[in-house]
Specification:
By secondary structure, the protein is of the alpha+beta class. The chain has 22 helices and 9 strands. Among the domains are: about 80 residues, Arc Repressor Mutant, subunit A (Orthogonal Bundle), CATH 1.10.10; about 80 residues; about 70 residues, Homeodomain-like (Arc Repressor Mutant, subunit A). Strands 2-4-3-6-7 form a 5-stranded mixed sheet, with helices on one face. It has a two-stranded antiparallel ribbon with strand order 1-5. A hairpin with a 6-residue loop joins strand 3 and strand 4. The protein is extended.
């Protein structure tokens, strides 16, 4: 084999650690970013919150509280949708407009602003804080289904075994109030391989199940939907026999009980003719029974579900100013979601004034790296919010009609349009618009909501798929309950509005809106 030297020229893309962190922070949601900030605050001693700075000890450090660099002005995170008219494209901050980039691998010395950034959040109104505290306290004090049932059990006289079995079944209920696992499986899970003990446990479970199904809310402890409806109908029969008023005669209740014994598919389709044949009743009587069944609660535990909703905190707030032709929309970042961080100036100044040598050189280099990481993190968070603001401003500029008239005025918009306008890649726009929310005069929406494909119109233009879905929802809301609109009729109505939308597309949009088909929307 002959050895030799050769020269080859090639290109490759290498992502620096700072760029990797910038991309990762950009795609995080507000909650994930908060967790990331907390983690780095625990790991990096050079990073601190600007509003949680501890008291500084004075050991002759007269200038300990002086920021390492205070000449840089704090960035302004507020822009107006009219910024484009003044030449500031997309509402970009001034430092970006001047050409200052975010690239770099940390090999050159930065001139960071170690002072706090992000601006102070406006002081909260005292009444608002009190209202929020009361609302959160009310949410925490909501009684669960299990607690409600256990409170009823306190009034029952049960043996220790039956009481334990009843509590076990209560804890086995799902959020809807159903007992999903068969009693035999639950008994085997407690008794193991002991057959005799499993049979004894099963007997206690059968007794406990009857007790459970006698508690409120009616229908709790059912194994399936048919049993849940049957329990509620029987409870109404018993109440009617005692003289209670339930708005249904005994014949209708009896017919409803016969109906719930039939396959649930027939009830779901409201196949009146087939159900009437199976039950040997008239179609009119069957319709009355179906109307009674429709008023029952298919999920007894629904009202006890702890709706500890994940309150969506918007990243961007859009406000309206002016009126008529002078209407402008002000786009600003939500200060409540912006972490106010800075480099710990005492540690940074101490490290800067320390000259290490020999065995301390490695430790000194490691600390220098942690300091640089803290500066990178602050800069990357700044970049994240700057990019969100730029993209949001561009969206508001493109979707002005939505902010004026609502979702019916939404125009088609794709990621490439915003990417070309801001000079960014489509993948960057996709990361920015995922799990980021904008508070508008019409509600809070994910940024991705403002993007949608276009459907052709008779005039040669395009209509946004979002606007078409809103139009379908409007048509369905105004339809006659006895004669609901089919997908073909909805398609024809859209064509009358000049929008070419096939029946299959209408069905797809209707399902996305969680609107039932016409046969299930028909009132009996």
């Amino acid at each position: 084999m002959k050895q030799g030297l050769s020269l080859r020229v090639s290109q490759h893309l290498a992502l620096t650690p700072q760029l990797q962190q910038s991309i990762r922070l950009l795609q995080l949601s507000t909650l994930e970013l908060s967790q990331e900030v907390e983690q780095l605050l625990d790991e990096n001693p050079f990073l601190e919150r600007a509003d949680d700075s501890a008291e500084r000890e004075a050991y002759g450090l007269e200038r300990a509280d002086t920021p390492a660099a205070s000449d840089d002005a704090e960035p302004d995170y507020t822009t107006s949708s009219s910024a484009a008219e003044t030449g500031d494209e997309g509402g970009a901050p001034a430092d970006l407009a001047q050409g200052e980039g975010w690239e770099g691998d940390g090999s050159v010395e930065m001139s960071p602003d170690d002072s706090e950034w992000g601006g102070d959040a406006p002081a909260r109104d005292g009444a608002r804080e009190q209202d929020e505290a009361e609302a959160s306290e009310l949410a925490r004090s909501q009684e669960s289904l299990q607690d409600f049932l256990k409170r009823q059990v306190l009034g029952l006289r049960l043996s220790a075994e039956d009481g334990a079995a009843l509590h076990f079944l209560i804890e086995s209920l799902n959020d809807d109030g159903y007992l999903e696992d068969p009693l035999e499986e639950l008994a085997r899970g407690l008794a193991g391989d002991d057959t005799e003990q499993a049979e004894a446990v099963l007997e206690h479970f059968e007794v406990a199940l009857r007790l459970l199904q006698s508690l409120e809310p009616t229908g709790v402890g059912a194994r399936n939907l048919a049993e849940c409806l049957r329990l509620q109908l029987r409870a109404r029969q018993e109440a009617a026999a005692r003289g209670g008023a339930h708005g249904a005669d005994p014949d209708t209740l009896a017919q409803a009980l016969r109906l719930v014994e039939q396959p649930m598919e027939l009830l779901a389709r409201r196949d009146v003719r087939k159900l009437a044949q199976l039950c040997g009743a008239s179609e009119a009587h069957t319709r009355e029974a179906l109307a009674l069944i429709a008023r029952l609660e298919p999920k007894p535990g629904r009202r006890f579900v702890n709706v500890e909703r994940n309150v969506v905190v918007p990243d961007v707030i859009v406000g309206k100013t002016g009126s008529g032709t002078q209407t402008r929309f002000r786009v600003q970042l939500n200060p409540d979601v912006m972490p106010r961080l800075r480099v710990h100036d005492i540690y940074a100044n101490a490290l800067k004034g320390h000259r290490a040598g020999g065995r301390d050189a490695a430790n000194h280099a490691a600390l220098q790296q942690r300091l640089q990481e803290a500066r990178w993190f602050i800069k990357n968070i700044q970049q994240r919010f700057d990019t969100i603001l730029r993209v949001s401003s561009a969206i508001v500029e493109r979707q002005k009609n939505f902010f004026m008239h609502g979702e019916l005025a939404m125009r088609p918009l794709v990621l490439r349009e915003i990417a070309d306008e801001l000079g960014l890649h489509e993948s960057t726009i996709s990361r920015v618009t995922t799990a980021k929310y904008m508070a508008t005069p019409f509600g809070t929406y994910e940024l991705k909501y403002f993007f949608g494909s276009g459907l052709g119109t008779e005039s040669g233009g395009n209509a946004s798929s979002t606007a078409v879905r809103a139009l379908i929802k409007q048509f369905v809301a105004a339809e006659s309950p006895t004669k609901p609109l089919s997908d073909s009729q909805l398609s024809d109505m859209l064509k009358e509005q000049g929008i070419e939308c096939a029946r299959r597309t209408v069905a797809k949009y209707r399902e996305a809106l969680k609107i039932a088909p016409a046969n299930l929307r028909k009132a009996l």
